[in-house]
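Bug report

Summary: structure tokens for ROK family protein differ between web form and batch submission.
Environment: batch mode, default settings.
Steps: 1) Submit the sequence below via batch. 2) Compare with the web form result.

Sequence submitted:
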Amino acid sequence: MRVGLDVGGTKTDAVLVDRGGEVVARVRRATGFGPEAVVQTIVGAVDELSAEAGAPRIRSVGIGIPGQVELGSGRVVHAVNLGVEKLDLAEAVGGMLGLPVGVENDVKAAALGAYSLHGARGSMAYLNLGTGIAAGIVTDGRLYRGARGTAGEVGHISVDPHGPLCRCGQRGCIEAFAGGGAIAARWSRASALPVRDVFDAAEAGDPEARALREGLAYGVASAVRVLVLTADVDAVVFGGGLTALGDRLVDDVRAELAASAEASGFLRSLRLGERVELLPAGSAAAAIGAALVGAAIEPEEALTHG
């Protein structure tokens, strides 16, 4: 058995995965704030999974977490939403559990999980549509990181120099058009679910909402074009909080891709709309991918935790 955890800013999703990759137990709990609380959240989730499954033999723990993960280490830096500036997460959790621990950026971990759920073949880009926009690229089961680990950071590619101001300082970034945080900031009405409200208001004919919704589709479609034209992936799989919009989101993006290809035989030949897919609702892709991260560092002999 292997454990994978997707540590988010508000909740942690943890799964116990068997040798065949099937999820045999799953728990969710609130994520604590600050280094010690984050570690306690993770350890508590592992213990809860172990108890639920009857104290099985666990070989490894993998963790997907926001922020930067220093390459080749288990150290996390700048996980601002978790109150973590710098933390050797692998050492802290491994010391408490007595298990090998692998750590990866949450979007990259989710990319590995989505690739596994997608059939683990060919090439795929996982496009995370949440507060921000980022992607992970997987080919033949391996993450493509680039020279400095920034491959897939498509959110801060400017696609309109006259577009909305992005938090990175540029104008017209993909994230400024399509990030949930940016849309919420530009939507003039207070709401618990601002992006959903934008879609609903757009369907009711509100001009401000229609402009925001069209901008979201433009931003996501731009990200799809970038990922296919630079990495030529077989599929672009959408995940993240905005995918709760379901077909309303995907249909908008496919329509935008089709419209942008009308004048270009080359773009039409790429069949971009056919390459777009949506992760199933409630998918544990990020936690499953984290379990794969942990499996990659397992020693030859299984360890026991129970």
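Above is the batch result. After comparison, the two runs are identical; trailing whitespace caused the diff. The longest helix spans residues 207-231. The radius of gyration is 20 Å.
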